[in-house]
Amino acid sequence: xxxxxxxxxxxxxxxxxxxxxARTARHNKKTCQQLVQHVQIIGDLLRKLQSSEMMQQPEIxxxxxxxxxxxxxxxMLVTSCQNNxxxxxxxxxxxxxxxxRVLQNRLNSCLQVFPLISHIDTADRLDQILEIxxxxxxxxxxxxxxxxxxxxxxxxxxxxxxxxxxxxxxNNFSDENQIGQGSFGCVYKGQLHDGHVVAVKRCFDLPxxxxxxxxxxxxxxxxIYFLTKLQHTNIVKLLGDCMQGSERILVYEYMSNGSLDAxxxxxxxxxxxxxxxxxxxxxxxxxxxxxxxxxxxxxGDLKPSNILLDSNMHPKISDFGLxxxxxxxxxxxxxxxxxxxxxxxxxxxRERRLFSIKSDVYGFGALLLEIISGHRCFSLASxxxxxxxxxxxxxxxxxxxxxxxxxxxxxxLGDESETxxxxxxxxxxxxxxxxxENPANRPTMQEVVLMLSCQDxxxxxxxxxxxxxxxxxxxx
Length: 476
Prior knowledge:
48% of the residues lie in helices and 10% in strands. It is α+β, with helices and mostly antiparallel strands. It catalyses: L-threonyl-[protein] + ATP = O-phospho-L-threonyl-[protein] + ADP + H(+); L-seryl-[protein] + ATP = O-phospho-L-seryl-[protein] + ADP + H(+).
């Protein structure tokens, strides 16, 4: 492609084109990947700021025009590395390496004058940007101050409620106010004195088993620890707590549309635009937990009942009782106990007690399959067969292999338009990538968000899903 033909292509599209071209580079692969790291960060920043008024400022537009020109040249250079001719590589390889160095320097210079940094609200992302644009002797000093401000901004203190306040708000925890129940407590709708409507989760009376008591207390403290530090539109807000005598109570923002579980398996149905909005929102919430919150969080129990929906059907990830932090750079870590819910727990967690961000990716894939099919992703034990953790995995896989993936789509989504059906089938393919047996083959949430938000990204072919050998499901 001639560079002139790229003149009308915007920066976000150019980023996608560069990432795709780099996958098939035959020469200078290492240098291509270094360039890709820069380009991915730029793409993330641009998507974050696309709808911002800041993008209309003259100095930003000028910087963006220069950036687009550099990205066009970067795309042409990466595609030149796809040439398979040995003689071409022999004579052009050195020149390409020089061009890469020049482009990297221009890219860094452009970022230095492109004032995006002050609008990025996570220490993790700032760490990446500063690593690129700051001289080595300044990186540590600047990053320390930025991270300090970020932590101060994100660690909001939860309010302390008295038991009397919450008894009054929930009409003494009446049955009429109860809106849900989990393994450790009941949830009530409440109204505070200022008129604010809240959700009040009251833990059950402490059990007699000492071990059970430890687990309950751990999950209660976990919830407070994480939700006072996490601030994202797709993470539920914890407003406060009450610890008085044996009472353990948490107070959240009220989600008027309840849980996603009620829509998938209840009498209310979602059309595809609503499903798509929920899927993308959950993916962005998970990406925030894994990469952008600064804490490196694994949720550990992603499932429809833990996805709450506000009045506009925007999803909020809830229930951080099983959440944990992970060490960046460490692929897998060992858990002291098996956690998670049947059907949503990755095989490496259930069988070897190993967890990673890819464990959450597995749960996200299982969630997608449930949303699209309208069926549970698991089958409970019958006789001596044991619980079936991969019921939907196998059904989706066999239908994929048979070229009949549309058969997986549930009845509520059966009347969608041709364009929407194409989008649904694409989401099933993404789900199959997420539930692959080998965690190393599963995409990261950053890759999932890109695949969901950009139709131009070519999806890899799925490989064997987890729990494939547990029972058989035919592609009917």
